[in-house]
């Protein structure tokens, strides 16, 4: 039976047998699952998201039925692979969505058991109170899963001391047709034949395997015949799965070895005048016994400088504009402060002797060390943000050679790139001989695809010449096409024997690494993902998405991406939405279009992706472009038409508020029923006294000194009387004369819903009004951060140039402020759009409160779940409430006064808790009273 047409029957059989997880053929989800952080794209047919190991075992058992013999299956974790490891046709098993639990911890013995979909940072955050951590420190730790790390044998910073993932695994459980097989328990009878066949093949090829694998810290893994067949002891079959990339079966449970958190940490950052000198510094610095030595070349530094990231560096390490510096990061960990101090001094002495060494900075504070490493990571993420059709891509980026061979290897590697006319960026782990070199290619161009093959072949040969390994950190994936040549015919035949024992029909991640057939995927014959949109296309950012997947962070403390945090569903992420938009752009498939509508409807429009994503994949803006196209061909829903009308007529509603106010509760109930909405504002804001109002016709008159012009959006003008009072009271208490500018809607709803004509009309009127207000010479201060950031982010993209409207804290930072006496503490909660677009916003407010002598705390939070109309819509209540519970609920409800900068956030707190939040200026007014 052919696999095509079997998906419905297989899905029906799963449900009939009691499979409790997700079973989906949604085209948008399949598009999201068709890419990773590589240049490849393979669309699967069916997505399964098992709830637990029992679901996985059921899946494996059903696959063994004769009628499903042609179906193939590939496991997927965080999808951060750089080589297409988890891309395939057939079934994708999404372990990230449900199988992300910490199952057991033994704090005395130092191990933990986890499900394969658990995220690395999540695991370590839970282990931290116990004094333990799981060692491999990957650059994608906020979203990579333990199962994916096991499958690719991931590595990262500190591996010279801590080893790779495979060095920190104690055992596995896998799902086979006969049931669950655990390395930590007895072997069931049904599995004995499988293990016997695997052992026979492994032992037969062990000597050839060892002869063809260099003795390196970053050792070769994946079907590791050497450690699976120790010189003394029983066959350790589970070691074959470490680095096997799902080609042997489904991993359902993992026991990891833990390491004690060292009490002390130090970091030296050194600037060198060239990458060559930075690279040459690595070997001498090893004498000081650091935990890690990493480099960042001048190209990455330049990108970080352009993005403003280097302003977060200590002053000694900052450069004048245009200056090119290569940075070396040297970390020391331990429990003995005196020993660490000696090592740091030894490293300083070594640096003093090195050519090209410049400024040096030593950090001992853990928060500062995290920030410095974050700068390095952020700079690397920007490699995908370069302009033009060619961008740095990961396809030869994790080769490992003995550290002493690294300078010669790099010289020859760069000569290969120069010969092909390719630019590049470099960073990596020089202490273990692993550099990440990303050549810039336009994957859409046939010539560059040919260069990909030519460079791959040349670098593979160089790696062998310098006694290295072609796959040192990020797994093999499609680059496994070189495995047969690298390992040799005898060892490869043994790997085939192992594959045949566990997967006799070759159905697990077929075409990768090892196969009984001649069907290994090629680096140029595997389908490539589209790389560029036509110039000026509204969906160009969807094509720029490189699958880095920073948007898939699990942490409730980070803004991006709220809908993914609430659902763990890849299609409800910026990456997933970008994939679906790109596929729709290419195919215009009506069925995909229908699925895409649902996916885009789940976006909260918080704009975190527009600023936090390294390549700024701005989903809300592209959603507006898609809606403009779609609703140019289809009728709009009544609820959308009602919203657009309400925004367009909002100035009239404000003007008629005294007349409308008595009947507004009835109007609100009728509108809520028509819009399928809940908890809509049931009262209108009362009109401000005349002395505070600033009409357009008043702008020609001179305004008194210390006047500040407050600018509001239509929602706060209509429904947030308390904000207006708080802003006025706060600025008055600080000695200013606040005036509230006549409201003109900014067109937020029109822009969001793709009503281009409506947005153009409203935005043009608002810009004219703001220009006139700016001509008075008085500062303009926005009353809601989402409104201010719309002017900054969205208006320029639409070709508009509004004058500067400040956030309140931006204005107050430069002012002389009075001190309050005996002020009560305040807990300040930031609007997620504000904290993502302006990461310093919380710190700026903290400076303002400190100047006022008001105690303040600014907890890190994600989205509150309201996001304008999103939290009012009936269909979004589960996501809205879950987001509030994830991130905000624990910060409200005690005796501390709560301030929130966003109108939506204050509404959500009042709606879903017993607390009430004020705008910060309201609490400032209270403290100064």
From TrEMBL:
It holds the Pfam family FAD_binding_4. Keywords: FAD, Flavoprotein, Iron, Iron-sulfur, Metal-binding, Oxidoreductase. Its cofactor is FAD. Gene3D superfamilies: 3.30.465.10, 3.30.70.2740, Alpha-helical ferredoxin (1.10.1060.10), Vanillyl-alcohol Oxidase, Chain A, domain 4 (1.10.45.10). Residues 594-625 form the 4Fe-4S ferredoxin-type domain. It comes from the Bacteria. One of its GO terms (biological process) is lactate catabolic process. GO terms for molecular function: D-lactate dehydrogenase (cytochrome) activity; D-lactate dehydrogenase (NAD+) activity; FAD binding; iron-sulfur cluster binding; metal ion binding. InterPro entries: 4Fe4S_Fe-S-bd (IPR017896), 4Fe4S_Fe_S_CS (IPR017900), FAD-bd_oxidored_4_C (IPR004113), FAD-bd_PCMH (IPR016166), FAD-bd_PCMH-like_sf (IPR036318), FAD-bd_PCMH_sub2 (IPR016169), FAD-linked_Oxase-like_C (IPR016164), Helical_ferredxn (IPR009051). This is FAD/FMN-containing dehydrogenase. The lineage of its organism: Bacteria, Pseudomonadati, Pseudomonadota, Alphaproteobacteria, Rhodobacterales.
């Amino acid at each position: 039976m052919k696999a095509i047409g079997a998906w419905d029957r297989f899905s029906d059989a799963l449900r009939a047998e009691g499979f409790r997880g997700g079973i989906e053929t949604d085209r948008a989800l399949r598009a999201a699952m068709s890419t990773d952080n590589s240049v490849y794209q393979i669309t699967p047919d069916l997505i399964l998201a098992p709830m637990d190991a029992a679901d996985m075992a059921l899946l494996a058992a059903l696959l063994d039925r004769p009628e499903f013999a042609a179906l193939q299956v590939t496991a997927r974790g965080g999808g951060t692979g750089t080589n297409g490891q988890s891309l395939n046709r057939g079934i994708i098993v999404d372990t990230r969505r449900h199988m992300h639990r910490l199952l057991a911890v033994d704090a005395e013995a130092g191990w933990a058991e986890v499900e394969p979909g658990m995220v690395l940072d999540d695991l370590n955050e839970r282990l931290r109170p116990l004094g333990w951590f799981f060692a491999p420190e990957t650059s994608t730790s906020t979203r990579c899963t333990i199962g994916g790390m096991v499958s690719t044998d991931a590595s990262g910073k500190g591996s010279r001391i801590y080893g790779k993932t495979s060095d920190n695994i104690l055992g596995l459980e896998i799902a086979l047709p006969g049931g669950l097989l655990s390395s930590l328990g007895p072997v069931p009878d049904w599995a004995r034949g499988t293990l016997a066949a695997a052992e026979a093949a492994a032992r037969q090829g062990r000597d050839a395997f060892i002869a063809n694998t260099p003795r390196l810290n970053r050792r070769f893994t994946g079907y590791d015949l050497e450690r699976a067949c120790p010189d003394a002891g029983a066959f350790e079959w589970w070691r074959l799965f470490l680095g096997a990339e799902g080609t042997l079966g489904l991993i359902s449970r993992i026991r990891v070895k833990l390491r004690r958190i060292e009490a002390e940490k130090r970091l030296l950052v050194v600037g060198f005048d060239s990458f060559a000198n930075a690279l040459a510094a690595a070997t001498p610095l090893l004498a000081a016994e650091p935990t890690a030595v990493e480099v960042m070349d001048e190209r990455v530094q330049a990108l970080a400088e352009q993005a403003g990231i280097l302003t977060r560096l200590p002053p000694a390490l900052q450069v004048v504009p245009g200056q090119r510096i290569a940075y070396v990061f040297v970390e020391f960990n331990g429990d003995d402060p005196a020993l660490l101090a000696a090592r740091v001094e030894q490293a300083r002495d070594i640096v003093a002797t090195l050519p090209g060494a410049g400024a040096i900075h030593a950090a001992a504070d853990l928060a500062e060390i995290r920030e410095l490493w974050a700068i390095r990571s952020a700079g690397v993420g920007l490699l995908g943000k370069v302009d033009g059709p060619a961008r740095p891509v990961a396809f030869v980026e994790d080769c490992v050679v003995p550290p002493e061979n690294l300078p010669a290897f790099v010289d020859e590697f760069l000569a290969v790139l120069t010969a092909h006319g390719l630019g590049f960026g470099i960073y990596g782990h020089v202490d273990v001989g692993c550099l990440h070199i990303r050549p810039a290619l336009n994957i859409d161009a046939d010539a560059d695809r040919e260069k990909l093959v030519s460079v791959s072949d040349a670098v593979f040969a160089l790696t062998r010449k310098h006694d290295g390994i072609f796959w040192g950190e990020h797994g093999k994936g499609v680059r496994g096409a070189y495995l047969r040549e690298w390992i040799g015919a005898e060892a490869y035949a043994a790997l085939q024997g192992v594959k045949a024992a566990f997967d006799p029909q070759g159905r697990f991640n077929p075409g990768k690494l090892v196969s009984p057939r001649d069907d290994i995927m090629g680096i140029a014959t595997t389908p490539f993902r589209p790389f560029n949109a036509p110039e000026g296309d509204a969906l160009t950012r969807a094509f720029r998405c490189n699958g880095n997947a920073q948007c898939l962070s699990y942490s409730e403390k980070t803004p991006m991406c709220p809908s993914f945090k609430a659902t763990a569903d890849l299609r409800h992420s910026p990456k997933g939405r970008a994939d679906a938009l790109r596929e729709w752009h290419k195919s215009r498939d009506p069925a995909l279009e229908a699925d895409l509508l649902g996916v885009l409807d789940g976006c909260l429009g918080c704009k975190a992706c527009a600023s936090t994503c390294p390549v700024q994949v701005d989903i809300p803006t592209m959603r507006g472009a898609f809606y403009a196209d779609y609703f140019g061909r289809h009728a709009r829903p009544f609820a959308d038409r009602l919203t657009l009308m309400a925004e367009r007529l909002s100035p009239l509603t404000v003007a008629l508020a005294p007349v409308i106010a008595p009947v507004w509760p009835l109007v609100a109930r009728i509108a809520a029923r028509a819009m399928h909405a809940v908890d809509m504002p049931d009262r209108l804001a009362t009109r401000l006294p005349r002395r505070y109002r600033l009409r357009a016709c008043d702008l020609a008159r001179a305004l008194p000194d210390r006047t500040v012009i407050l600018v509001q959006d239509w929602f706060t003008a209509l429904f947030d009387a308390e904000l207006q009072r708080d802003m006025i009271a706060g600025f008055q208490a600080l000695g200013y004369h606040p005036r509230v500018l006549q409201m003109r809607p900014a067109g937020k709803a029109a822009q969001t819903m793709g009503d281009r004509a409506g947005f153009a009309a409203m935005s043009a009127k608002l810009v004219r009004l703001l220009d006139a207000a700016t001509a008075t010479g008085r500062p303009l201060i926005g009353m809601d951060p989402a409104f201010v950031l719309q002017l900054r982010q969205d208006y320029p993209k639409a070709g508009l140039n509004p004058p500067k409207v400040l956030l309140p804290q931006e204005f107050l930072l430069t002012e002389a402020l009075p001190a309050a006496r005996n002020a009560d503490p305040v807990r300040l909660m930031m609007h997620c759009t504000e904290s993502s677009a302006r990461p310093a916003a919380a710190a700026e407010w903290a400076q303002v409160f400190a100047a006022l002598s008001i105690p303040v705390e600014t907890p890190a939070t994600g989205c509150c779940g309201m996001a304008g109309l999103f939290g009012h819509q009936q269909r979004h209540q589960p996501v809205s409430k879950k987001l509030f519970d994830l991130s905000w609920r624990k910060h409200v409800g005690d005796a501390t006064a709560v301030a929130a900068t966003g109108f939506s956030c204050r509404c959500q707190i009042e709606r879903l808790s017993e607390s009430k939040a004020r705008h910060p200026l309201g609490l400032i007014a209270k403290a100064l009273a």
